[in-house]
Each structure stands twice: as C-alpha cells, then as structure tokens.
Amino acid sequence: SQTSHSGDAGRRWQPSSIHTIGFSRDKDQSLRPVIPAPASMRQMPGFFTIGNKKISQLVIVNENQENKKLATLLQSYLNVHFGLDVPIASSGGSGAAFSAGVKQIVLTRVMPRSTDLKAINKEAYHLKISPEKITISAEDSGPGLFYGLQSLFQLMNTTEGNLEIPCTEIEDVPRYPIRSLMLGVSYHLFPVSYIKELIDLMATYKLNTLHWHLTDDTGWRIEIKKYPLLTRVGAWRSATQIGKDAQALDDQPYGGYYSQEEIKDIVSYARERYITIIPEIEMPGHSMAALAAYPWLGFNQKYKVATTWGIYNEIYAPKDSTFAFLEDVLTEVMALFPGPYIHIGGDEVPKNTWATSPFCQQLIKTEGLKDEAGLQSYFIRRIEKFINANGRKMIGWDEILEGGLAPNATVESWRGTSGGIEAAKQGHDVVMAPTDYVYFDYLQGKEEEEPLGIGGFTPLSKVYGYDPTPKELSAAQQRHILGVEACVWTEFIATPAKFSYMIFPRMMALAEIGWSPLKSKDYTDFLRRRLPVHLERLDRAGMVYRVPEVIGITDTTLTGSQFEFTLHSAVAGAGTHIYYTLDGFDPDLTCSIYEQPLKIRLSKGQERVLKARVITASGKKSVVTTTVLHGK
Ligand code: ACM
Q1: Which end of the chain, N or C, is more open, meaning fewer C-beta atoms within 10 Å of its C-beta?
Q2: pLDDT per residue as tens digits for the range 68-114
Q3: DSSP H/E element including 362
Q4: Site to substitute for ligand 1 among 215, 401, 414, most atoms within 8 A of C-beta
Q5: Measured in angstroms, how far is the CA atom of residue 282 from the centroid of ligand 1?
Q6: Backbone torsions φ then ψ of 314, nearest 5 degrees
Q7: Active-site residue list
C-alpha cells in the first residue's frame, strides 16, 4: 500500500515467520490442543510416529485430483516444520509408495460410513489418526479438507526430533457459517504483508470471513479508477490525534490506500485459505473523506478529511448524482470482491443536514416517506436494489433497521444484541457483533495497565463466554443468526504489533464461539490446556500477543493463617515461567520462579503481599496480579 506517515516510529514492525513451529510439549500439557474445540473428538491410545528425516516411511495419498493444492499444502507443511520430504501419490492401493511399512496420510472425499455428522456441509470434515494411517475426509474439495488439515497441524508434535501425532478421531462441523473479523483501516492502515499474516492466522483458527472496513471520515482506503480524487484527496488527512485528547493533533499528514492490484492479491490470498472478504463502503454517514474529494456528493460545503473520529453531520445527499456515484463505486468493488456480501455501513447517521435541506424535504414528500429515518431507509433500499440486481447480498450495521429494513438486508448487530434479535424476528439474517463482547479495540485489562486504548472492557473470559444465539428467539428465528464477528477499529491501533496485541488471544476465543458447539466449550480446558500451546507458538514466532494474567491468583485481599496457591500460566514452553514475590516488589526476571504450590503461613496481625506475573521465553510480560494476605 502507498502509505506514509511522518513521525514514523510507531509504524515500524517486524515481519514474523509464523510458520517456524516444531514445538515440544511438557508432559502435562495437552497432546490434543485443538482450537476451536471440535464438535466431537475421541482420544485413542498410541501415536502415529515418523522418525526424524526418515522420508521413505511416509506418503501423502491424494484420492481427489481437485484438491491437489491441499495435498501440496500438507507436503510443504511437513517439509517446513519437520524437515520431511514426503511424496504425493494420486490414488491408493499399488505401487512402490504403498509397500509394507510405508505410512499414509490420505485425503479423500469419501466420508466414513460410521460418521454421524448431522449437518455435513462444505466445512465439515472427519479426521482419523491411527498408528499406520491418517485419513482426512470431507464432502467436497473445499474448506472441509482444509480445516481437517488445520486440526491435523495443531495435533502435530515433535519428541526428540520425531514427528508424533496422538491417535485421535475427530468429527467436526462449524456451529455458524460466518466466523468473522472486522479490520478497520480508515484511521490507521496496515501493510499488505501484515494483512496476509493475519489471514494465515485466521485460517489456522477456522475463521472464514474478513470484513474490511475500507472507507470512513478519516480516510478513504480503496482505489476507485473512475474517481481518482477519492484516494488523491480522500486518502489523506492533515493530522492525527495524539493520545486520548481529541484536541491534541500532531500536524503530520497521514494517509495511504490499497491499490486495486493489492486488493486482488489479498482477495486471492484469502480465497486460497477459504476466507471470504466482505468489503465495506460506508453510506450515507461516515463519508467525510469522500465528500472532501467530491463535495457535490453532499451539499457542496467545504469538506475536509476528518482528523479525528466521531459522528459528523456532513453526510451524502440522497441525490441521483450521489446514487450514480455509489453505483459506480460499488461496481468496481464488486469486480474486486467476488464474495456474496457487500457491507454498506449505515451506522451513526445524523439527520440534521437532511432535516434542513429543502431538497431532502421535497424528496420525503414525493417518495411518501415519513421522515428523515424514512429517507435513510429509502437510501439503503435503493442501494440494496442495485446490489441485489448485481447478484449480491447487502449487509449493514443495525441502524439500517430504523425507518424500516430493506427487504433482503442482513443486519450486523453491534449496539448490543437487540438489533439482531429484532432483525431475526422480522425474518432477516443476522451477524452478531455486540460491542460488550466482541469489540477487540476494547481493553483487555485495567486501563492503567494496558496500552492506550478506546476504553471498554472485553477480557478473554468475556469473549469466550459469549453465545451469539439469543435465547429469546424461537428455533426458526435462531437459524437467522449466521454467525459472529469481532470488530477491530483502529483509532488507537497504529501498528501491526498493537493490532496483534489486541486480537491475540481473543481471536482464539472468537474462533471457539463461532465454531464449537456449546457442549464442546470449556473455558478451563481452553485457558489451561489448549491455549498455552498456541501462545507458545506465537511466542516462538516472534508474534506480539497479550500474555494472560497468572491463573490461580486474583487482585484481592484474603484473611487467614494458612494459604496455598496453585498457579498456572496460559503460555506453555521451556523458558516461560511464573515469577513471584512476597516482598511487595513487582516480579521480574530476578525473582523466584514458581515451581510448586506456594504454601504461606501467617501469624495473627501479619501481612504479606503475593505478586505474580508470567514472563515468556521471548520476554513478554503479563500484568502483575496482587493478593494481599492478612494473618488471622
Ligand atoms: C460501529 O461501531 N460504529 C459500527
């Protein structure tokens, strides 16, 4: 992307090779740390084992020529992570590759007869690991096999240089068809290489949708050939807010955009990983950047690309010329993004300019509309008609309910869940994205202990505990809940490193609420047995993430004479430890390492302060948790 930003220090970042894994595990760590938790998983005794570099022991059998790419993906994964050079054979049964003693990994479209997946769909798969053979079956050559491979990768382990995979049978199908992350790029934008890294990690966790918020008041980020000023003017603002104070600006021009070539590259990269991108072109509000480029889209005032975010009165005028412009823009957008959905925004639209415009008041009369809310509904319906006529579906934020929903609209519920509930009751499809549970720009801890952020509080446990299907809906209405999306608005996220900090590990929790049936979910198992292995991987890969607080201690005061603390870290691996103090100082690398349950005795009136934090192999620190102990 053509980005530039003076005062560039914050935008430097380290590309990380997330693929150099080959991790080993402590004996007490889970051998089957699959995230998201499969619909069903059976543990069996024994291992599928390949000795170090003994390549003649293994063959990949690809029974379906259509999924040649996936066989190649497996082949290269085994090569990159385990140094194995494994041949691919096209069908089973004969030839040198199938001689006795050669183990097989079979990719097939034939589901085992025993399989009892109720809803076999394109994303479902069956994975069976036995000592001599691994089979991944899926209905089609599509995402099912890909997801089966992701689960297999997560089960791969090295012990003394050998590849060891615990014998396991998984039958898996997602709970929801849409499992999504929203990437905001208006206030800050991110390199193409980082977006690809993000897509890789989304695919690892079986997320299948990336909602790309491409336009807003503070910057237009997508090249539109017919309207070059959208990026020449609309992609640049004169200053950026410093910290929390909207009055404090840095007076440094900031901007950039994604060219159509870059977008095609990202769309195709995502598609290869079974991720569909939903582009968002905001209307009728949050359109200052477009108005700055072409003032005739509004009311011909003097417009500027906004330097700070908010809700601006300046919005599109509902004139024929504006609709013609939007249709042109959407035509280019649809040519770039082949997925079924186009997001049109629709949130936070102040009606002042429409209320005071003689043109708008006349339009309300001629169209027989009730008021300005009716005019917004007219605006969105007119756009929906165009989108539908082009074979696509329209999705918008829950404000599009106001004044009446467009006939085929899908609603994204962000101001809580009531918009989604109302839409489902009206028979419309819904994606749930309530701020309180899945806004990943919200803080993960206490404000004073977290990086600068927008506020809010959506810690990992709260994300994990969210159930996107509202209980107050009937079974038929519940079927309209298509899925869940976490939103990452980037007003306070200026670097890829901070973006990663905000989404990891919350994205793993998102994956589990979007994929796993309720019966497979278990926060303790997630936090203590499975997540640690994944965070160890991120740690080794040099990826930034938020280290969860020590498990087994809270910020509190306890009274008693004997205490015992059993502590756990949500990051596994050699070199990662829990450090603690009993002297009131914050633990650092010079302090005691936790090795066994801490037993503390206090006499009456004594006070001790126990502080604990995790410091990972790469030096990342959790916040300090403090328990004050009073002797009784
Ligand atoms: C939103 O957060 N304004 C959709």
Answers
A1: C
A2: 899 999 999 999 988 889 999 987 555 655 677 789 999 998 877 66
A3: helix 358-366
A4: 414
A5: 11
A6: -75, 115
A7: 216, 286, 348
**Can you tell me which atom of ligand 1 is nearest the CA of 397?**
4
What's the 399 CA to ligand 1 centre distance in angstroms?
10
- Return d(Cα 285, Cα 511) in angstroms, integer: 31
Strand order from edge to edge, sheet including 254-255 = 4-5, 254-255, 236-237
Strands (E), 335-462: 341-345, 393-397, 410-413, 430-432
Rounded Cα gap, residues 619 and 295, in angstroms: 51
- Ligand 1 site residues, Cβ closer than 6 angstroms: 347-348, 397, 414
Atom of ligand 1 nearest to the CA of 487: 2
pLDDT in tens, 334-382: 999 999 999 999 999 999 999 999 999 999 999 999 999 999 999 999 9
Cα(569)–Cα(65) distance, integer angstroms: 44
Q: Tell me the CA–centroid distance for residue 353 and ligand 1, in Å.
A: 21
Alpha carbon distance 39, 43 (integer Å): 13
| Residue whose C-alpha is closest to residue 413's, from 425, 400, 394, 427 | 400
User: Structure pTM?
Assistant: 0.94
Residue bearing the CA closest to ligand 1, atom 3: 347
